[in-house]
Design goal:
The chain has 142 residues and is an alpha+beta fold. The chain has a single domain, classed as Nucleoside Triphosphate Pyrophosphohydrolase (Alpha-Beta Complex). 19% of the residues lie in helices and 38% in strands.
């Protein structure tokens, strides 16, 4: 594989709403996505999640759980394997940055899944199941 295939995506629900970014760049410019991004050299995937959340949203987080690993070859422009963490807000104020045009918080029941980028619709659906059943999820789990 070329490039940096290790990716993290972040589930952060606070005050009853899920944190989403509105993408300011292609691909999927103008749609909503979970905050996240690539792991830099010398950092763990957990450190990348914390850094990416701060860069994209201005929020500080603590990693609490792993929702799952998503590796479907069709999930992104290239084969990106994402570890998705469920996190807790520890500070900061919402402020869009990095490739995020805007930050939004939405109740899970109000999310328009047709406006969600990448495979983040599946990840959010898995998170809704996780809230009821716990467990671990991945790209091909039924």
């Amino acid at each position: 594989m070329r490039g940096r295939p290790a990716v993290t995506d972040i589930i952060l629900e606070f005050e009853g709403k899920l944190a989403l970014i509105k993408r300011g760049t292609e691909p999927y410019k103008g749609t909503y996505a979970l905050p996240g991004g690539y792991v830099n050299d010398g950092e763990t995937i957990e450190q990348a999640a914390i850094r990416e959340m701060k860069e994209e949203t201005g929020l500080d987080i603590k990693v609490k759980y792993i929702l799952g690993v998503y590796s479907n070859p069709e999930r992104d422009r290239r084969k990106n394997i994402s570890t998705v963490f469920i996190c807790e807000k520890t500070g900061g104020e919402p402020k869009a940055g990095s490739d995020a045009k805007e930050i939004h918080t939405m109740p899970l029941s109000k999310i328009d899944f047709s406006q969600i980028a990448f495979d983040h619709d599946q990840i959010i659906q898995d998170y809704i199941k996780w809230k009821k059943e716990k467990g671990t999820y991945w790209s091909t789990k039924q």
